[in-house]
Queue: 2 jobs
Job 1
Amino acid sequence: MRTIKLGMRVVTALAVAALAAGALASQGAPATDAEVQIDQYAFLPPRIAVKPGTTVTWTNEDDAPHTVASSAKLFKSKALDTGDKFSFTFTTPSTYAYFCSLHPQMTGTVTVEAASGAGAGS
Amino acid sequence: MGFDKPANPNAIGTLEEALSKINALAVKPSFLIHTGDITHLSKPSEFDDADRIISQARLDVHYVPGEHDVLDEDVKLYRDRYGRGTKGAGWYSFDANGVHFIGLVNVVDLKAGGLGNLGNEQLEWLENDLKGRATSTPIVVFAHIPLWSVYPAWGWETEDAARALDYLKRFGSVTVLNGHIHQIMQKVEGNVTFHTAMSTAFPQPAPGTAPSPGPLKVADDKLRSVLGITDVTFKRGQQRLAIIDEPLQR
């Protein structure tokens, strides 16, 4: 239940972030939250790049249960039934590999980009 | 137990039908083997429902877990119910009617990008379990995920099964039974015969025929023709076990 509530809050935050997106982009620094769908035994998109402080929310839209498990055991969701969500906030720049511990052929990565110089290229 | 998606909203009903089918067999089986995925989400209520229905057979049941039965980190829910007298995450062996039966666990500690996994501790146990047994002893091995390469892209393979099969190859008759893929496939390799079985809950697509191995929705009046039980008969003096796959409806 807790993860579901967390997920709801993230969706609300996302909506607010989307409204303010133009202003945020010019300021560069703040992280917007990110979403990954789980469907057809795959993480979509399988690879995402985010800024430090980003909360990533996975939503299982498949008929089968799945988990989100860090390969380095930094985070692991409970088994997510259809409609369940799991969120994790990434703070340190690195590439985080994860997989579904039930169907380990399902893999993905979250790359947290260095905060310094954010916006310099855009 | 616990599956209620469109592919079969009434998995309780079809398990009950499977038990009726078992109870109606002309020859009463010596015991039942369950190759795992007793539950959908390892919930106590799902295990309770399964136990209540399966016990209607009034037969000993030998289980191994599927990945859906070990969703709690320490595999406590499964082992508390079915783990008595087993090693590790629940592997064991026993003898019946001169046949040596081995239940293996290949659904715990799965690695990213990987397949089913037995692990070193279990493989060492298996090597010792087989040591000193006459090669004329018929062997039946059962585990959840196939011990042969059915379709690695969907994870339908056990990555260290080759070592297990290496220990088994000196025996004259080896039968390997698996679940997991919810459809019937067979393969013969030397003295080893591999069989998978139908599910009692929902079918899955044939390898590569769908974007994913997820539950396959078939027409309502076809569902019972792709669910069922497997009847294994030990025929002394013959090389292989005779296996008859029995759908709930033909």
Job 2
Amino acid sequence: MSDGQVAERTAYTEALIELSFESDYQSVTVDEIVARAGGSREDFERTFPSKQACAVAAIEGVMAKNLRVVQAAFDSEERWPDSLRAGAYAMARYVADNPKEIRFGMLDMLWAGEMTGALRDQFFGKFIAMVEAGRDFAPDPEAVPALAAESVVGSITQALGRFSLERGEERDPVAAVPEMMYLAVRPYLGEEAARRELTIPPPSD
Amino acid sequence: MKRGPDEAPVIPLGRHGLSPDVVATHQRERLFEATVDLVAKRGYRNTSVDHIVKAARVGYVAFYDLYAGKEECFLAAFDRIVEEATEELNQAVAGEEEWPQQMAAALACLLDLAAADPKRARVALIEVQAAGPDAYARYEQVFDRAVPKLREGRALSEEAAQLSKTLEEAVLGGVVWLVHQQLVVKGELADTEALLGQSIQIALSPYLGDAKAKALAKGTLRGRARKG
């Protein structure tokens, strides 16, 4: 794909995300996407067979960018839960800085069932693995419930759903990180280590 | 036993002598069954009033006499599912005296309901989140109603004051997500007992401690196995 084609694709996916934020995904038309992106109907149809295909490309782009940012932060620390905390702050900042993308991903794609199963598994699987890395550091790894990580990621996803519906006006995802870390650390390292998370200040940028 | 729209009672054509209230009740029932069935299969967004009235075998005029549109019809279905589930949950909890056993019974009841009728569970836990801000707000209200009951568990914790402030929301969110994932990925709750054991442990450990929560999970599963 040429640079021009990539730029064209991005213009359409960004237009769809913006328009979905302003109204809702379902009511956005291809003509509106084309007008917002400054393209033409012919160009759009050459790039995407449908609005849904454009939406899938949009959500793939959002997920890839989000994962890149969070994974890099996670990998910057050697020990768990330091690595998870770094990843959690990267995630929270991403959510705070990209409300349109998060709303599109959560409400228009995930809850609406537009996200494909493979994409869901790939995306949530990475975050579950970051939490589940705590098992290697647990005093009794076998005592940790098998679904602990999935439940933690689920709690956070539900919280993000609330945040995205409020269009980021009322809640601060960065301020919620210590509470999320408490929840994530508790099954692996116990109550005391989890409570310590509530007192650790956010890292400076 | 739950009925599908094809098995719900149909008003005979022509003169039937039934009062308008009885007719409206029958129509509401058929619309409820059709809405749950269609929304669970097609998703809220891909279900239209057209789909619903055809499946329910109810006329458009009758539909719009009862509801302003698809959203109102969906919200009525959501409210009914929640109301009936709440009744069952209250009964399950009333059979237990202590808070830990009450919570275990509530979780068991919730999972049993989802396993027995995955379509209703899908509507109430998944599709409601895609059905617009009013529906989402209603889902949130239901969610928030459960928080105070769970918060009572802090009285059992020796260090209640130091527990995370949003623990209850997080615990509920985690359990709902586990059910949600099974419904999305498998379309049903495949292994209710395993999920129940894990849910009890995950949800109640912060209040009871790991050992007691694990023992409660085991005891609950043993009790259910005995009852068959």
